[in-house]
């Protein structure tokens, strides 16, 4: 999962693999006016797309690489970027025709051969930290002619494949620069200028300062950048990020200020806090083998009782200052096809009597001992407060006794897939803004949660929704999957959905337009 917990997504009918301050002055002026400085705490893992599957690297890829299809600001349907058009030529062949005369910033031509090389390389390297898992349904990539490429899919009518092309699995790289069988180092990448996106990199001090300049040869979806030069400044702490955007040392702060800092900045007249739909999900996972309960029926009753005892509104307001909103499905509101079955079935407020009845009817002795694990560093310091609040909520019912423990991220990632945690925290940033990306990774066989959930009826529904071309019928199937998971299975409990938030000086324009569920923060739409 991209900077979320682990990277994993696959087609429902297939196997889903498990696999997320330095000084800076103004950068000068150009055709777009004074340069912009953008601050972030996200870290770049690599400039090589084959191994990049987290938000820090995505921010760079969004600026410097072109994609066959991309998401226009505020849109959730992919549109042509480097491609002139893309369409299914047969149920298992997706054909893309490139725009003519495309080239990389170093002068090398960008052709169908570049596209085939990029996808073959991504699949061939299959880096454990990379996004190749998104291409599970890709059987092969073929060049038809200089401008045309065919993607042959393993399963027909895959409605999600067009949305995979704008993801981190889809950057087009220069076959004359990148080796086919290994990941290229950052200095080798940027100095070779294999870029075809809106910007090129002119200076690179990894996770300290990256400087960009508009690419005059870019001929894609976003058009010419509104600001010619942009600098990205990297911070170790959100506290310094907040101070610099307040005092005007940077123009925009994007990821990740604390909820308290954001609440404070809303009252500062020198800056504007911009909120957008983000699609980030926070949720609780049950290991179906090791969670409390002697039988499957008892385990399900425990999960239903927990679902009836959580106060999401309190978490949203008291812990996250409204920067997260209550989530009643694994598919957040704002994503096409989202419903709210947990609200419909278990209520918007805690219901102790309902929780007690679930447990009593299944013969579960109370209080139920729950060993609940969370991570204190990967999702921010507020995780400690969030899970302390959840412990208090559950124990206030008198039905549960919670043993709350935390583990640092590196160990957490290893231990959670080794059945060490009966109940545990995870978060999710979507790969693409489609409901399937909140369902298949969680509920298909061998899903990335590794929590032993495998229900053939759900797998069949996932296959059906992913291959249904009629929008109304697909929406109905998506709703049924969400309801069946909430009513009959509950392998996870959705808790909160995060907004996409950036803070900018009052003179900065265009910020709100790029805060959308694609999580692509496009520097080229910003100006001042």
UniProtKB/TrEMBL annotation:
InterPro entries: Peptide/Ni-bd, SBP_5, SBP_5_dom. Keywords: Signal, Transport. Residues 1-20 form the signal peptide. SUPFAM superfamilies: Periplasmic binding protein-like II. It is found in: Cell envelope. Residues 78-447 form the Solute-binding protein family domain. It holds the Pfam family SBP_bac_5. Belongs to the bacterial solute-binding protein 5 family. PANTHER family: PERIPLASMIC BINDING COMPONENT OF ABC TRANSPORTER (PTHR30290), PERIPLASMIC OLIGOPEPTIDE-BINDING PROTEIN-RELATED (PTHR30290:SF10). This is Peptide ABC transporter substrate-binding protein. It comes from Nocardia acididurans.
């Amino acid at each position: 999962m991209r900077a979320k917990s682990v990277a994993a997504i696959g087609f429902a009918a297939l196997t889903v693999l498990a696999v997320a301050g330095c000084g800076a002055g103004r950068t000068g002026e150009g055709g777009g006016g004074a340069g912009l400085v953008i601050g972030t705490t996200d870290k770049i893992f690599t400039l090589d797309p084959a191994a990049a599957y987290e938000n820090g690297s995505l921010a760079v890829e969004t600026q410097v690489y072109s994609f066959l299809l991309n998401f226009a600001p505020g849109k959730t349907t992919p549109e042509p970027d480097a491609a002139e058009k893309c369409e299914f030529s047969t149920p298992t062949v997706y054909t893309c025709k490139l725009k003519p005369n495309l080239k990389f910033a170093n002068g090398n031509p960008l052709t169908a051969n570049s596209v085939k090389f990029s996808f073959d390389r991504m699949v061939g390297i299959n880096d454990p930290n990379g996004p190749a898992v998104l291409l599970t349904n890709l059987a092969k990539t073929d060049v038809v002619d200089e401008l045309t490429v065919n993607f042959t899919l393993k399963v027909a009518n895959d409605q999600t494949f067009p949305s995979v092309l704008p993801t981190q699995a889809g950057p087009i790289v220069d076959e004359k620069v990148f080796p086919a069988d290994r990941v290229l180092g950052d200095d080798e990448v940027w100095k070779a200028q294999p870029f075809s996106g809106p910007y090129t990199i002119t200076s690179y001090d990894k996770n300290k300062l990256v400087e960009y300049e508009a690419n005059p040869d870019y001929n894609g979806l976003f058009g010419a950048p509104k600001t010619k030069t942009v600098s990205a400044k990297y911070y170790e702490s959100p506290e310094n990020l907040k101070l610099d955007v307040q005092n005007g040392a940077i123009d925009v702060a994007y990821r990740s200020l604390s909820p308290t800092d954001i609440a404070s900045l809303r009252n500062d007249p020198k800056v504007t806090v911009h909120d957008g739909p983000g699609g980030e999900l926070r949720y609780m996972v049950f290991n179906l083998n090791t969670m409390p309960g002697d039988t499957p029926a008892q385990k399900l009753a425990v999960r239903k009782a927990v679902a009836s005892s959580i106060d999401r509104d309190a978490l949203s307001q008291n812990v996250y200052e409204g920067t997260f909103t209550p989530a009643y499905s694994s598919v957040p509101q704002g994503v096409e096809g989202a419903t709210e079955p947990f609200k419909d079935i278990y209520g918007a407020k805690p219901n102790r009597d309902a929780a007690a009845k679930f447990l009593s009817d299944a013969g579960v002795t109370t209080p139920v001992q729950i060993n609940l694990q969370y991570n204190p560093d990967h999702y921010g310091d507020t995780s400690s407060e969030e899970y302390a609040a959840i412990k208090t909520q559950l124990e206030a019912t008198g039905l549960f006794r919670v043993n709350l423990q935390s583990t640092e991220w590196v160990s957490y990632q290893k231990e959670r897939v080794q059945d060490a945690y009966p109940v545990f925290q995870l978060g999710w940033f979507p790969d693409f803004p489609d409901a399937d990306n909140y369902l298949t990774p969680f509920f298909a066989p061998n899903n990335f949660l590794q929590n032993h959930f495998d229900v053939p009826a759900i797998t069949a529904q996932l296959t059906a929704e992913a291959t249904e071309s009629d929008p109304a019928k697909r929406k109905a199937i998506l709703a049924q999957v969400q309801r069946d998971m909430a009513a009959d299975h509950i392998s996870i409990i959705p808790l909160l959905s995060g907004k996409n938030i950036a803070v900018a000086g009052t003179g900065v324009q265009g910020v709100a337009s790029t805060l959308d569920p694609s999580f692509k923060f496009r520097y080229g739409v910003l100006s001042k």
